[in-house]
Give the backbone structure.
Amino acid sequence: MTEVVAIGGSAGSLPVVMAILKALPVAFDYTVIVVIHRLKNVVSEMERILAEASNLNIREPEDKEPIKKGIVYLAPQNYHLQIEADRTFSLDYSEPVNYSRPSIDVTFECVATVFKGRSVAILLSGANADGAAGLGKVIENGGTGIVQEPNTADYKLMPQAAIDKNKRALRQSPDDIVDYVSTVNSSQKPRE
Amino acid sequence: MAERHITNDDLVEILHLINRTYGYDFSDYSRASIKRRIHRSMDMSNLETAYELKFRLANDAEYFRWFLEVLTVNVTEMFRDPEFYTELREKVFPALATYPIIKIWHAGCATGEEVYSMAIMLKEAGLLERAKIYATDLNPLNIEKAKKGITSLQHVKSYTHNYIRSGGKTDFSDYYSAQYGAAIISSELRKNILFSQHNLVTDQVFNEFQLICCRNVLIYFNKDLQNRVISLFYDSLSPMGYLAIGTKESLLFTEVRDRFEVISAENKIFRRKKSSTSIK
């Protein structure tokens, strides 16, 4: 039983994130957390873009917001997105990790700590090594780690770094990733 | 990064030791953040185990001064979230202008960047002469830095950009002088600011304010402490006084949410409702 699917990406990851979200069932019994690197101090349209593309309930969580099933949470720009043991989000405005805030490592490590084997982490295209360590923590704690096949990524550095660091990570093409996510916990009906 | 891991029990012991030895109570800080801070400090000082860290903390006050710097998050910038400043100017300043003396509290001011942003805004609104800004932080080193009003020139470009987007009225360079790669905030902005040490966890109401700014500080506290601190703010505000918190912080998960009305949902500006009863 999967409780959380966490998706991390940077440059070149947005089309894959959109494809995954579009393929999600209308109702799903787990939580999706998306961490994408983006510009700070700019009013972001990301939440709206993703919501319109997928028709899903997508929100940037506020500090101490309880984590619910069936919702896609998007890490707010310029904060690290953490998860507390009581399954609430907590935000953090400390220095960037791997030159990134939000950092994928920070969120993946929290997912690993709190949801252990009931978590899936997916790392997509990107031009730095953020996410590799966090993906390792998820696998170490019994969760599933999936990395976009570097040959299919616009920017290979991020998925390659994760594969180099984690022998047990699964390498998948975007299509396979979409298939995987749309069947998590499933027998649920796919969307029209 | 090295693989250092402290358990929850270690964490409790470390925080207890800090409180007993140095009088700083971090027990109600958000666990995810404080654990990352402690791991970071261990990485930076090459400590492998919780035992080593406890030993250093118990025996080396100089080390603790450094450790406190790492533990508390002092990342800040001028005019962060420019839209917040725009709304402050439009929705809060007209009310502040009706007071003969405007008292403002910046709680958890770190190294002062937001305090100086406020001073610039007040000056441009013609309110600085009547304003008294109290800026507090728990870390004495932050207070020392904030008082000096020196920031690195490399940040000035992004601050200038933020300032323009917030609707700044003049040239940002009017407010600092550049020397040896540093930007020094003009003394005119500094004269109505009082920097002092105050710990939101343990210290009490010390004045009555028309505006309290505490942005991106509450995120480091757990829900209990958030409740206590928001109550402290409530008791420190004049009736109809304003409270500004970080754009991703919320009063929704606190017990006192009904005692405030929303002035800006987007930029998290609230106003204390009229009733004058204290929460306690």
